[in-house]
């Protein structure tokens, strides 16, 4: 876990109640950085100096983090319309229950065979507004496969939680 955090990127710091943003710096290199050009929320540029206390508010923005309270936080969750509130939680729970099959699938997924495992590249490539037909087809098929794996996991739990995935099924025409 600490190795993972060491390789995450830090890009915010607080000074006197003010939040400053800066270009991401790998956590392991942060304290050795002499000074950082940062930006206030209003766009003003300032120079800040790294401090250990900056890690108190550091969030890695990966798929899940172990918090200081001992809970797991899923960062891929964002605010959804009310009828989709539990879709993300049910999706993640289903995948977690079906983790062995998920890991096996990810090792052989056609999506990764075509686009590789460079997550930085994938994040940039698939956050674009316009995707090629191949990219769109591949991401939809990948999403469908993941949704089916999540559903399998929820079926195993036998608590009728698949209903929460209905908005995702509709979105993917399943």
UniProtKB/TrEMBL annotation:
Keywords: ATP-binding, Ligase, Nucleotide-binding. It comes from the Bacteria. One of its GO terms (biological process) is glutathione biosynthetic process. GO terms for molecular function: ATP binding; glutamate-cysteine ligase activity. InterPro entries: GCL_bact_plant, Gln_synth/guanido_kin_cat_dom. This is Gamma-glutamylcysteine synthetase. It comes from Streptococcus pneumoniae.
